[in-house]
Amino acid sequence: IHARSTFSDEEGTWVQEGASMEQPIVSAVTHSENDVVFTLSDIPDRPGVAALIFDVVGSAHVNVDTIIQNVVHGNAEMSFSVPAEDVPATQGALESTRAELGAFTVEENHDLGKVSLIGAGMRSHPGVAAKMFRTLADHGINLQMISTSPIKISCMIARSEIPNAVRELHAAFELENEPFNEA
C-alpha cells in the first residue's frame, strides 16, 4: 500500500510485507538466587486443596512463583517457589492449613535458584525451550522445575550452577553483553 497526500508531491508512506511479529526474540537471560522451594507431600487429591493452600499463602502476603503439582496413588505432591524473605510467612501459612488438610509433609529446598529466558514470540516457537533445555543439559545442569509464559521460560536449578547456566544460555542465544564479568 502506498499512501500519499493529494496536497503535496512527497513520497508518502509505504506499507509492505515484513517479518512476522511472532519471531522468537530472546532479549535477555535473567537469574535469581533468592528462591526457596517448598514441596508438600501426601496432600489430599480433591477439588479445592490447591485453592485452600494458595488462599492461605496469599493471605500471608507471600509471592508464589513457579508451581508444579503431581498426583500419585490418590495423594498429591505440590512444589512451589517463594522469595527467601517470604519463608517464615509461608511456614506459618502452611501450618495453619493442617487442621483442614490433615497430616502432610513439608520440605524446604534453599539450594535452588532460577534462570530465565525473556523475549517475545516464545509461545509460538517450541524450539526456544528445546534449545534452552539442551544447552543446560549439555553442560550437566539438572532442571528441578520449569515454568513458561508467552514472554518467559524459567528453570529452577542448583544455585551453584547459576553463573555457568547464565553464561551458556547467553552464548547459545547470542546475546550481546557478556554476563558475569570476572574481575
Mean pLDDT level: 87
Main sheet: strands, sense, barrel: 4 strands, antiparallel
What is the rounded distance between the termini? 54 Å
Kindly name the structural category. alpha+beta
* CATH class division of the largest domain: Alpha Beta
Helix content: 25-40%
**Gyration radius from CA atoms, angstroms:** 22 Å
Kindly report the spatial arrangement of strands forming the biggest sheet.
Answer: 3-8-10-9
The count of DSSP E runs of length 2 or more, i.e. the number of strands, is 10
- CATH architecture heading of the largest domain: 2-Layer Sandwich
Runs in which pLDDT lies below 50 for 5 or more consecutive residues are: none
CATH topology of the largest domain: Alpha-Beta Plaits
Tally the structural domains: 2
Proportion of beta-strand residues: 25-35%
Give the helices and strands as they follow along the chain: EEEEHEEHEEHEEH
Any idea what the CATH superfamily of the largest domain is called?
ACT domain
Approximate shape? elongated
Instruction: Determine the number of helices (DSSP H or I, runs of at least 4 residues).
Output: 4
